[in-house]
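REQUEST ID: PR-0412
SUBMITTED BY: lab tech R.K.
PRIORITY: routine
TASK: structure prediction, single protein chain
INPUT:
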Amino acid sequence: ETRLDMAKGKLLNTDQPISEIAEQCGFSSNAYFSKVFKEYIGKTPKEFRGSKGGLTKNRPEYNSGLLNLP
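STATUS: complete
OUTPUT:
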């Protein structure tokens, strides 16, 4: 599991502050984490969390139970 995969899981499944997630995933600063996350994922960590990773209830990933979405 990459650091970004770990961060995505924490963003979707916890209410931890983004700065705490960045630190737990081994990033030296919140700014660097946000920059790398946006470069590879296409959204900032805040945008990713707010959109539930881009998943909605009508997507197979949601319905299969792969993610813990409300």
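NOTES: The CA atoms of residues 62 and 69 lie 7 Å apart.
REVIEWED BY: pending
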